[in-house]
Amino acid sequence: MEEEFIGYLVSIKCLNTVVYQGEIVGVTPACITISNAFCNGVPTFNYNDVSIRAEDILDLAVIKKPSTSPQQSSVISIAKPATKKSSQHAQSLPESSNKVGSSNSSKPIDIEQRTTNDNSVIAKANSTTRKEKNQKGKWTKGRKDEECFGSPCVEEISKDFDFEKNLALFNKQAIWDQLNSNNQKPDVIKQAEARRPTKYRHDENVIASVPVTYRQIQVPKQNYLEYVTDDGLIIPCLNQNLRKKLFEHVEKAGISWERRVELMGRAATEISIQLLGGGHRLNPQNFHQWPTVVVLCGPNRQGAMGVNAARQLASHGVRTIVYLAATSNEDVVKELSLYKQTKCPLVSNVNELPDISDLIILALCDEGENTKPYVDLSSWTNRNKAPVLALDPPSSGTPNFNTKFSILPGLPLSHSSVNGKLYLCNLGIPQNVFNEVGIKYKSPFGPKFVIPLYPHDN
Prior knowledge:
Elements: E1 9-14, E2 19-27, E3 31-39, E4 42-43, E5 50-53, E6 57-64, H1 95-100, H2 119-134, H3 141-149, H4 163-168, H5 172-183, H6 187-194, E7 226-228, E8 234-236, H7 240-253, H8 257-276, E9 292-297, H9 301-315, E10 319-324, H10 330-339, E11 346-347, E12 359-363, H11 375-384, E13 388-391, E14 405-409, E15 421-425, H12 431-436, E16 450-455
Parallel strand pairs: 9-10, 9-12, 10-11, 12-13, 13-14, 14-15
Antiparallel strand pairs: 1-2, 1-6, 2-3, 3-4, 3-5, 7-8, 7-16, 15-16
GO molecular function: mRNA binding
InterPro entries: DFDF, FDF_dom, Lsm14-like_N, YjeF_N_dom, YjeF_N_dom_sf
Family: Belongs to the EDC3 family.
């Protein structure tokens, strides 16, 4: 008796206002078991079977009875395909059975979408089909929503996707071999492609340019070290006599020492601001850690360069302290008269120098003089651990000082590695002045005022 209800689709209302829908798979006097169960319209986890006790059931309604299979026929008729414009169902061809020669009087099988005993449902479905065909091409909100969101809930994915295993199935080497084999074109196609006009990028010139000459500066009897710029231009070194002769002609041309010292001071200021951090450090909102620069000046023209650089740094708001070894040089005295108007400190004792500074500018020694050791200053500099920037130092380096950067005027001498990284300053010397001393010159500076130099490997 209980087996008669197996397969029924039922809706069961329970005591706790819970409604279950599903297909009966088991019936006993004590409980009913349903599969593919929905609880209040929500599918149960993984569609597990649900057993409901008889005393918990308030109401039970049959939604659908199990369909009975129709009578099988040995003769299968071929349905005529229906055209798109026809609204009628495909009809069976009776003469197909006659051609076969069968005299069986059983009804052929008609394939229908759904078999039901309720005529009203069929009529409603037919009317809905005709309505949809009449409204073909028009937007029907309910029908579109049903097509998009009417699919049943799928089971949750219980197993993670293995990306590594799936990636291992892809033979990348075979794909690359196939692509490379496709690129091997016949000789005829290669010759045809070679005749095509060249296509230029947005940064290429259509007009052919002259090959770049990297050795634009040539000096007589070049037997010294060479340097190279970021653009690959070769900068030869001068010897002491040629450099002295060049600056003598520069003086005669009207570029006095006062002009050259201003240019060197500007170059030192530019490099110093970069070493201090630039705009991030020299910011009004960063006044609590304003940089301090100590300038060590000797009684020579290099010392005058240092005082000039200190004045220009002070004009940018940098705190500067000038240490002056002696005031016997006339060029230093002229620069001091301007520096004193900045109200920045001037000291002559090593003990008055600060323990901590952000940068040290070294302008103590000249190339031609006997270099003084300055033992106290060198020990203070090494304790301070701030980077040292030298202004036109001796080519062999300043004794007892660890120089990290050096600025050179015009053209460099053959400098030792103890002078650190070299920068070349543009003094604005005319080309005719270089020609007078036998130097073939073309400016390597380009858009910059100071350029870095690197030792040339060759």
